[in-house]
What we know:
Number of strands: 9
Number of helices: 2
Strand order of the largest sheet: 6-7-8-9
Strand content: 15-25%
Number of domains: 2
Amino acid sequence: xxxxxxxxxxxxxxxxxxxxxxxxxxxxxxxxxxxxxxxxxxxxxxxxxxxxxxxxxxxxxxxxxxxxxxxxxxxxxxxxxxxxxxxxxxxxxxxxxxxxxxxxxxxxxxxxxxxxxxxxxxxxxxxxxxxxxxxxxxxxxxxxxxxxxxxxxxxxxxxxxxxxxxxxxxxxxxxxxxxxxxxxxxxxxxxxxxxxxxxxxxxxxxxxxxxxx
Length: 213
């Protein structure tokens, strides 16, 4: 008889009490398959969060952890290499237990898929470099970019105009100085206008805002 993968039903090869072990195996299969309990280890559901960290495991073996997340063995070994197939469905982000970095949960209260970043910090990453995203039915697009999105360095400083000396009547040099400061201010407004329009275009393109009524 073939070897039974660890953590699964008991191997009944040459068993002294074949009937009893067979009954136990049916109970384990019923619990794991029909009741969807965590994978049994030594006759009881595992308390491990994440894939198994001990024992020998075979290729394509499935493992259900304490939170109900499903993992699949992609490389046989001790404990083997595992890939998370299904996230753990939770009503609140876990704040206790030993949870591996990269562990995925589905917060059913908020409807969000989150990744464990370590230290019980849960993050949601939307999109990848080079990928496309669209919101509210807009065709997905790559991350908007362009020179118009560059940060604006303001030339006109705070209090620059108020601090100007204006005589009564003003001199030609004073008028020229005021004119120069006003031109600097206009340049800043134009630069900010370029940035605002670039941001608006990016938001409309991705569907985050509609852009009109």
